[in-house]
Structures are given as C-alpha cells and as structure tokens.
Amino acid sequence: MSVNNLKEKARWLRQELFEMVIRQRAGHLPSSYSMTEILVQLYYGGTVRYSEGHPDDPNRDRVIVSKGHAAMALYPILADLGYFPADELEHFTERGHLLGMYADVRIPGIEGISGSLGHGIGMGAGFAFAGRYDGMEYRTFVIVGDGECYEGSIWESAMFAAHHKLENLIAIVDRNSLCILGETEDLMALGDLEAKWRSFGWHTVAAEGHDFDSLREAFELIGKTDGKPLAIIADTVKGKGVSFMEGRAEWHNRMPSDEQIVTARQELAHG
Fold first, then answer.
1. 96: domain CATH number?
2. Judging by beta carbons within 10 Å of its beta carbon (0-12, 13-18, 19+), is residue 80 exposed, middle or buried?
3. What does the mean pLDDT of the chain come to?
C-alpha cells in the first residue's frame, strides 16, 4: 500500500474511533491517536502477517497493545479484517455486546488482556519464546506506552527477552511524553529510552511515529538484529489529529463539548 493510501487509512481509523467513542461518551481518544500510524503501518503497511477472516491462523503474527486503555484502537481494524461484524463498533461498551472499554481475549484478533499496565512485554516474550520452541515463524509485536515504562515488570521482561535472544519479539514504545497525570519527564523522568532499552540488551532504534517511511525503515530491521529483540522508540503526539487534544494531558479521558465535536470532525475529515 502506498504512503498516500496509508495516510488515508490513518484518517479513516481516527474518524472511526472518534464516532465510536462519541456515540457512547466513553473511551480514550488521545492515547489511541498517538499510535494510529503505528497500527496502520503494522496492519496495512505489510509489516504484520495475518489471514483476513481467520483470526486464529496459527501462523499469524501476534499483536499486543500493552497500554490497554488504547487497545480499542484495534477494534475498527479487526472488524475491517473480517474478524467480527463491523456493526459491533456501534455498540462499543454496551452491555451484551462484544467490544468493551478494555480489550478482551473473547474478541477475535485480541491476543491478551492488557487493562493493567506493564504486562504486555511479558506476554509477548512468552509468545515469542513459545513460538521458537514450537518451531513457528510468527513474530510478536507489543505496543507499550512510555508512561507504562514506569512499571518494573517491563524491565524484568526485557531482561528475559534479551537473555533468551528473542529476535522474534518487537516492542514499539509510544513515546508521546504524556501520561494521565502530566508530562512523563516532570513526574518521573524516563530519560533516554533508546539508550535504556539498549542497556537491557535490545537492538534499539528511534522512529517518527506519525511518519510511514520512518516506521517502515524501523520495521525493516526485524530479523536483522543479531539475535536481539527489537525496540522501536516511536516519537508521537498524544491526541494527534485533533488540535485541542494534541499534547494536552488533561484530555487523557475527557469528552469534548458539542462545539468541540464539530471542530474535531472537521479536522479529522481533512486529515
């Protein structure tokens, strides 16, 4: 798919997510928007291997959104792949329907529950280790929040993955520099995350998280890391695509006013 087509897919995904959230007045748009291009590159840019209509294909690559409050960003994509009916998106968070606020393994295409932060890398390392043990060629991709990197379980799992040379494990750190309480570097400085992951034995590279060429170049390193797991530190903007949400921590789970809804729809329509 061309870069222009990928940009159009990103615009589509943001619009779908916006309507899904506004309909129910529930969800986390800014956290989803910071990783929109990452997901589009994974699923539509030829990075992740999957079978449309077959979410349980044993040869599929595994994708885990460890920052679980944003795992809802997968829902329109999974519906688009034919994993469940698209009209389920209209019933997001409704009792008796499929799609909850946080992703659940009952949803076709969801590989693990990730509402509690810090566990995605551990799950991903387990998938990667099991895949190698079973002689499978699938890769495991884990999207991690930068605020989530405060969790000690992230670094325990990072050590495990490096020790076992899990070259089939790829972490993408959504480096939007914000979490629910404010700026990460003010709350508890994370410092140079590229150097930090490298110090834990990972092959590490920086990427522009909203630029498809930059993301593609980073993902092209998969399988070329001399036995090391790959960490991609993706520089992103929380709330990307909606001007009044961009880079604003207070919009973590806030709902827009009627006037702001009109503005957001106009901005999202023009990409």
1. 3.40.50.970
2. middle
3. 97
pLDDT in tens, 125-171: 999 999 999 999 999 999 999 999 999 999 999 999 999 999 999 99
Tokens 């409050």 correspond to 69
| Strands (DSSP E) found in 127-262 | 140-145, 169-175, 178-179, 182-183, 203-208, 230-235
* CA atoms of 245 and 81, how far apart (whole Å): 29
Which residue from 234, 181, 270, 254 is spatially nearest to 29, judged by alpha carbons?
Answer: 254
Predicted local confidence at residue 115, as pLDDT: 85
**What pTM was computed for the model?**
0.98
Q: Are 64 and 123 in contact (CB under 8 A)?
A: yes
Contact 66, 120 (CB under 8 A): yes
Q: Looking at residue 271, what is its pLDDT?
A: 80
Q: How many domains does one find in the chain?
A: 1
| 166-214 per-position pLDDT tens digit | 999 999 999 999 999 999 999 999 999 999 999 999 999 999 999 999 9
**Helix then strand then coil, % of the chain, to nearest 5:** 45, 10, 45
CA dihedral 124, 212, 261, 254 (to 10 degrees): 30
Which of 32, 132, 26 has its CA nearest to residue 76? 32
DSSP 225: S
Instruction: Return phi, psi of residue 221, to 5°.
Output: -80, -10
- Percent of the chain scored above 70 by pLDDT? 100
Q: Which domain holds residue 156?
A: 3-269
- Tell me how far apart the terminal alpha carbons of the chain are, to the nearest angstrom: 18
Question: Tokens representing 218?
Answer: 């980073």
